[in-house]
Amino acid sequence: MTHFARPAAITLCLLLAACGGDGSGDGTQPAAGASAGAPARNQTEVARLLDCARVEGVTLISAHRGGPGPGRPENSLAAIRHAAQAGAAFAEIDLARTAEGAIVLMHDDTLERTTTGTGTVADTYLGDLRRYRLVDPDGNETGEIVPTLDEAFALALEAGIFLQLDLKDVAPEDAARIASDVGQAGRSLIIAYTVEDGRAARNAVAGIGLSLGVEDPATLEATGIGTDGLFAWLGGGVPSAALDDRFADIGVETGAHAFREEETGQTDYAAWRAAGVEVLAVDDVIAATGALGAVRTHCPEIFE
């Protein structure tokens, strides 16, 4: 039987209570502008944020692997905190299972590149894993330890940033249920590379956000997956504005990444905004938010 580590669950529940949450975990709120006598359309925070980005014509930033930098290892709490302070809307994090089934933040199957440890994540127990220290992109040891998913959720709620979950070897339905269990289904996105993964996540938790790998609006509509709180992932490079318009016609936002362009050091972030992309995954959070603006500048009402 698989057990999940929950070292931050109590802290998260207290944070939810302090924010006025009712503990239901559905993450839905009435849509802005609903009349007092009419049935309100309930939307999650992620759905409202994506709609805001499309309507306002802005591009939101997703910090790849949390947004690492000097002294900030990838997939660390320090990186997530920094991404939130820099104005990113999302922190994209990678999930892996330890030997006993605890879910932690880790991109690689092995520990050598990003920690002071050796071996594989799957063969290491959480207690042993936490004795190692994370290293930053320059290979420098830091005081950061490998965080659990629960700790990332607690920090994200406190810092005011949404999590985008890259599942690796974690089942989409498991990640969706954990987000729901800690009251953050409405503040989370599951990265679904296939329609089957997206459907599994939504079958487990109907309101969970999705980043779905689909490049054609008709294909998306044919899946039958609800489009609220979902954006179409178009991959790397700047997509055509015409394709974004076709998705906009069915009320769907688009996402892409700028990694290859950032490697050249000559990234024109405004090109993605001109193409209509609503979510841009980047490595350089400071440069991207400097060019495209912080999320609270664009859509502050989502965080009120």
Question: What integer is the average pLDDT?
Answer: 88
Spatial gap, N to C terminus: 40 Å
Q: Total number of helical segments?
A: 13
- The CATH homologous superfamily name equals Phosphatidylinositol (PI) phosphodiesterase
CATH level 3 topology: TIM Barrel
Backbone structural class = alpha/beta
The residue fraction in helices comes out at 25-40%
Shape: globular
The profile of the biggest β sheet is: 8 strands, parallel, barrel
Protein name: Glycerophosphodiester phosphodiesterase family protein
Organism: Hyphobacterium vulgare
Pfam families: GDPD
InterPro entries: GP_PDE_dom (IPR030395), PLC-like_Pdiesterase_TIM-brl (IPR017946)
Structural description of this entry:
This protein has 304 residues and is α/β, with parallel strands linked by helices. It has a single domain, classed as TIM Barrel. Helices cover 35% and strands 17% of the residues. The protein contains 13 helices and 11 strands. It has helices spanning 9-18, 45-56, 77-86, 126-129, 149-159, 172-181, 195-204, 217-223, 241-249, 259-264, 270-274, 285-292, 295-298; strands at residues 28-30, 42-44, 60-63, 90-97, 103-105, 162-166, 188-192, 209-213, 230-236, 253-257, 279-282. Strands 3-4-6-7-8-9-10-11 form an 8-stranded parallel β-barrel, surrounded by 7 helices. Strands 1-2 form a two-stranded antiparallel sheet. Helix 3 packs parallel to helix 5. Residues 1-41 have low confidence and may be disordered.
